[in-house]
Amino acid sequence: MMAHRIVMELTVVALAATALVACGDDDDEAAGSSGGGAGGTSSGMGPQAELAISPDTITESPPSTVTFTVSLSEDPGADGTRVYVLGDEAQSLTQLDLTDLEVVPDGNAAPQGDLDFSGFTLLMTTREVSVTIGSFDDMMDEAPSSVRYTIVPFEEVPWGELAVENVVAAGPYRVATATATAELAFRDAPP
Fold first, then answer.
1. CA separation for the pair 158, 118 (Å, rounded)
2. How far is CA 186 from the centre of its chain?
3. CA angle 50, 86, 59 (to 5 degrees)
4. What is the pLDDT of residues 48-102, one digit of tens each?
């Protein structure tokens, strides 16, 4: 049983490495070598991804909403671009009402959460996608907290642990280091 698991894990790693190399070769030939440029990037592959969060504070009472906006520097490929946004606090997304969200523009899929509710992947079929989510009132008194959400560089994403489909088909992206992070404050009520 253990040997079977190790073989499966090695196969997944080998397939992922092959896919990344294949994606990198295709993008380098199509776009030329783009090594970082202004603002700094994580890689020379695919469109550059940026993150914005508005407003920067969400309250449980009165209920409020927050919008995560991910933008790409160029149109995603025919199969889209899947971007991974990760918070620096485990289970931070449980403070949001994940059953009530709006994705704009229409035609983009709803985000898929990771296993510990600290981040999500977003399959983008347009250059900009906004996800608006309401607060979740858990009826508990909690201290105010802030979570820093960051677009994880494509080559650092643990795709095998996220249970998402079409990662390779969706293609890679670069990270704009200056605009890849945004902070969100969680409060039970306004200060």
1. 14
2. 19
3. 90
4. 999 999 999 999 999 999 999 999 999 998 888 999 999 999 999 999 999 889 9
167 dihedral zone (left: phi>0; alpha: psi -120 to 50; beta): alpha
In the DSSP assignment, the letter for residue 60 is T
* H/E segment holding residue 39: none
pTM metric for this prediction: 0.74
Cα(64)–Cα(67) distance, rounded to whole angstroms?
Answer: 10
Residue where the block lists tokens 């994606």: 23
Which residues are CB-contacts of 32 (< 8 A; sequence separation ≥ 6)?
Answer: none
Site of tokens 């983009």: 108
d(CA 191, CA 133): 21
Q: Which residues pair with 49 in a beta bridge?
A: 72, 175
Cα-Cα-Cα-Cα torsion 52, 133, 86, 20, nearest 10 degrees, comes to -80
- Compute CA 40 distance to the chain's CA centroid, rounded to the nearest angstrom: 19
Gap between the Cα atoms of 13 and 6, Å rounded? 11
